[in-house]
């Protein structure tokens, strides 16, 4: 027969003066914890530092590309406006020529 396991609710209270990370560094009863060596801890810190640096590098590249993109968008708009103006100049010249021919007839 299977044994019935009784569990009791445990309430843990701790007076926190703020939400800083070091204040939630405590172990409660029946909480799963892991023990690591100092060398393992140092390796974890090293890995995190490398990843943070990579993240900062990629973030910098992203913002550089974002600035470049905005600059190219502005240049694109200027060139489109110039094309539009040049096309309209040709149309206006054609209209003026037709008008001059019409006046002469």
Overview of this protein structure:
This protein is an all-alpha fold. The N and C termini lie far apart (116 Å). It is 64% helix and 0% strand. It has a domain at 38-90.
Write the layout of secondary structure elements.
Layout: H1 38-104
Keywords: Coiled coil
Coiled coil: 62-105
Provide keyphrases for this structure.
elongated; single chain; mainly alpha
Q: Main β-sheet: number of strands, strand sense, barrel status? A: none
Rg over CA atoms, rounded to whole Å, is 36 Å
Average residue pLDDT: 81
The helix/strand order is H
- Helical element count? 1
Counting DSSP E segments of at least 2 residues, the number of strands comes to 0
Strand content: under 5%
Helix fraction, binned, reads 55-70%
The dominant shape is elongated
**Through-space gap between termini:** 116 Å
Class based on secondary structure composition and strand pairing: mainly alpha
Low-pLDDT windows of residues: none
Coiled coil: 62-105
Keywords: Coiled coil
Write a concise synopsis of the structure shown.
This protein has one helix at residues 38-104. It is built from one helix and no strands.
């Amino acid at each position: 027969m299977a044994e019935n396991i009784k569990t009791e609710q445990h309430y843990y209270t701790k007076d926190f003066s703020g939400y800083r990370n070091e204040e939630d560094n405590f172990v409660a009863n029946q909480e799963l914890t892991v023990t690591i060596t100092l060398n393992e801890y140092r390796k974890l810190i090293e890995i995190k530092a490398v990843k943070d640096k990579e993240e900062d590098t990629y973030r910098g590249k992203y913002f550089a590309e974002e600035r470049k993109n905005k600059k190219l968008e502005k240049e694109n708009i200027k060139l489109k406006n110039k094309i539009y103006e040049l096309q309209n100049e040709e149309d206006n010249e054609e209209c003026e020529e037709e008008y001059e021919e019409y006046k002469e007839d």
